[in-house]
Every structure is written in C-alpha cells, then in structure tokens.
Design a protein that fits this description.
0% strand; 79% helix; single chain; 19 helices; mainly alpha
C-alpha cells in the first residue's frame, strides 16, 4: 500500500504543477522526482537513478530521430511530401481530410511531436478542409487525431520506450527478445488498423456534413508537385527498408555472417544510423544547398533545442522515476493489486485501457510507458495477451490516448488554434474520436483483429 501512495504523490504533483500552475510537463516530472526523493528518503541513491536515466541507448536513438525531424521540417522536405499527397488525394470528395490523416500520421511518426505536427501540417490541411465544407471543429480534430498517431507509428522516438519495456519483460521472464525490425513490423501492423479507423470516420463525417471536393484552382498541380517533390517521396523507403530487412533476415542471413551477438547489435544500431542516413539524404536533395551548410545546420539545431529538450527531458526524468519505482517496488505493487482483482482477459484489457486513459489526462504517455510499461505487459500476458502485442500497443494506449484526451490533449488545442473553432463544439466532436480509439484498442489487444508479426 505504501508503494501505491508514492504513485499517488507522483500523479498529484504532475497534475498540480502542469494543470494548476500551467508549467511544462518536464518540469512537473522532475519536481515529482525530487519530492519523491524526500518522501521516500532515497537521496543516497539519487546518482544511481540519474545514471540509469541517462544510460539507456534508446534515449540517444530518440535524440537522433528528433534531430532528423528538425532537418526535414526546416528544409521544407515535409512540405513537398504533403503537396504530393494532397495533389493525389485532394481530388476526391473530402480529399483534404484524407490527406490530413495520411500526411499527418506519416509526418507525426517522423517528429514524434503531436502538437508540433498539428501546427506544421495543420497549417496546410486545416484551411483546405474548411474551404471544402468541413466544420472548423471537425477539421481541428481530424488533424490532431491524425497527428497523434505518430506516437505509435515507427520511426517515432516514442517507440523506443516500448521496446525497452519489452526488453525488460523478456529478460525478467527468460523469453527470447525480438529484433528491432520484427518489433517495428508489429507496430506497423497495429498502426494500419488505426489509420483505417480514422479514414472511415472521415468518410462518415463527410457524408454527414455533405463535404465537397476541393476546387481545381485550390489543388496543387500533380505534375508540378511530383517534379518538385519526387525525391522526397523516397524518404519512407530509406527509413523503413532497413527495419524490414532486419526483420526478414536477422535470424539467418545476418546471424550466419555476423554471429548471434553481431546480428543482435546490428539490429540495435539500426535506430541510430537510419536517422543519420535520412538526414544526409534530405540535405542532398534540398534545392537550396546554401540552407544546409554546416553553419546553417548548427543554427537549425540551436533553434530546435526547445523542441528537443522537453521530449528528452520528460523521458530522462521518467526513466529516473522508473528506476526509483523499481527500487521501491511500486510497479510490482500496482501489478499485485490489479492481479488480485482476478479479471478475465476482457476485464484486464478494459481495466488497463481505462487506467492509461485516465492517467493520460495528467501524465505524458512516454512517462507512462517508461514507468509502468513492464508491469502492464506482465498483467496482460498473464491473462493470455501476447507479450509482444502488449508491448507494441503501449505507445497507442499511453501515447496516443494521452494526446487526444483533454485536459492534456494538447493536439486538440493546437488544432483549435489554427481552425479557430469553438471549444465546446470541438470538445464534443473530439469525444467521438476518443471513444473510437478506446474501442479499437480493446479489439486489438483482445486479438479480435489480425496483426502482422503476431
């Protein structure tokens, strides 16, 4: 019971500091860590917790992908991709909405920043949606809900915390770990269902609101966009192909040539070198080479520190709290309490989806995955859910739900800002998206829908 009190203190501090005082989330998580050090009397271990928070290699992979997203955004490579997609899909009824789902999901996966992606892609897609008859509140929610899918679609930096949680579970339970590639294949399989769900909802809302096609004058010309942006469309291949090859050949081709240990470390390094290769490719294809000189790139990163620091800070401080909670047995205590409820498979899936939804109202999804990921995997595995599926769903039930559920649903507020929509109408419309997200989460975890790689 004492361990659960520590959990309550963490939630209370984050809630008061973030919601009450309107301070950044990373400050709230750091303050919770400091207060917990006092309450638990574990100051003697503070350097151990800091070391564990900084020692995971996945943290540096996260930095690599966030840095890559800065280059892609500042060099306007992102704009080229969106223009091509809009010129292709914008020709059908409600095309601007479908473009928002596809483009925002992909770009959100690269950046891992829901609100940032809403502001970047939403500045193009939201006005286009409004011009073709989408109500402002619907345009805001389509964009925000699509953008936050980036938290669950590789190569988002948020994925690395889920991989770490599965690795911890595998080591503790004596089961074979999986390669980065295989884990990502499962994540893409899950993401396909949620992309389809959002596309179906856009179709239904288009029918309800009688949305029109975009006019020819508003559509970018396909030939011009392809001529200007065809090189940018190779980025998905450059990013995704190494993980597909890793998943397909890690068990035979790479092991036979590099040995089991060599293949293992090659798989782990994929996260680092893909971001670097993609960044180099972006610099090579950008038209204005003067924009990617060493000095200009340094200025990009200097200007992007504000976007990198909060995400990295939340994860580092979250890992530190996770190390403390592991020392104090907090996650295990929560697991024991939930296990004592003797839920069926359906009951446990419902309970964990509900808990992550409620915690997501005040606690960032990345922190949830870091602190509670292993225990959630254990609880779900104990009732018959595949541990790999449970781990791959963590970014969804934690990261996506956190981003779309008020009051922490920052994506909704970012979308409202661009769409200039009414809060009450936007909130009510957003509930349709939250409910649909919750129902689909339960369906996937229950195994009612097939997932590639499981």
């Amino acid at each position: 019971m004492e361990s659960l009190i520590y959990l309550g203190i963490m939630l209370a501090v984050i809630c008061v500091w973030f919601l009450g005082f309107k301070r950044p989330v990373y400050e709230a998580v750091l303050l919770a860590f400091v207060i917990l050090l006092f309450v638990t009397g574990t100051w003697s271990n503070v350097l151990v917790y800091i070391d564990e928070g900084l020692s995971t290699s996945l943290l540096y992979s996260m930095v690599a992908f966030v840095s890559m997203s800065i280059i892609l955004t500042r060099t306007k490579i992102v704009d080229s991709c969106i223009a091509v997609i809009l010129s292709l899909i914008g020709r059908i009824r409600g095309g601007a909405g479908y473009t928002a789902v596809i483009a925002s999901a992909f770009m959100g996966a690269l950046s891992g920043s829901g609100p940032g992606n809403v502001m970047a892609t939403g500045s193009l897609t939201i006005p286009a949606m409004k011009k073709t008859g989408f109500p402002a509140e619907l345009a805001a929610n389509i964009e925000s809900n699509a953008s936050y899918m980036g938290n669950m679609i590789p190569p988002s930096s948020n994925i690395v915390a889920a991989m770490a949680a599965f690795t911890a579970y595998a080591a503790a339970n004596g089961i074979e770990d999986v390669s980065q590639g295989k884990f990502w294949i499962v994540l893409w399989g899950i993401a396909a269902w949620f992309v389809a769900q959002r596309l179906i909802m856009v179709w239904a809302f288009c029918k309800y609101y009688k949305v029109e096609k975009m006019s020819k004058e508003e559509l970018p010309a396909l030939k011009e966009t392809l001529r200007a942006g065809w090189k940018a469309m190779f980025l998905p291949v450059i990013i995704l192909l190494p993980f597909i090859l890793d998943a397909a050949f890690s068990d035979n081709f790479f092991v036979s040539r590099l040995g089991a240990e060599g293949a293992k470390y090659l798989s782990k390094s994929v996260l680092l070198f893909v971001a670097g290769i993609s960044s180099i490719y972006a610099c090579l294809i950008v038209k204005d080479k003067s924009a990617v000189t060493p000095a200009k790139i340094a200025k990009m990163f200097a200007g992007g520190v504000k976007s990198i620091s909060p995400a990295i800070g939340v994860c580092v401080f979250g890992y530190m709290i996770g190390a403390m909670f592991e020392d104090l047995g907090v996650a295990e205590a929560l697991g024991e309490v939930m296990a004592s409820w003797s839920f069926s498979k359906f009951g446990m899936v419902l309970a964990i989806c509900a808990i992550t939804c409620v915690m997501g109202m005040v606690v960032p999804g990345s922190s949830q995955v870091v602190i509670f990921g292993p225990v959630f995997i254990t609880l779900l595995a104990n009732v018959g859910v595949s541990p790999l599926l449970a781990a791959a769903m963590l970014p969804c039930i934690c990261g996506v739900m956190c981003g779309i559920t008020p009051p922490l649903g920052l994506g909704m507020y970012a979308g409202m800002t661009i769409a200039q929509s009414d809060f009450s109408k936007t909130f009510k419309n957003n509930m349709w998206w939250v409910v649909a997200q919750f129902v689909l989460q339960v369906a996937v975890l229950m195994g009612w829908l097939p997932v590639i790689g499981i």
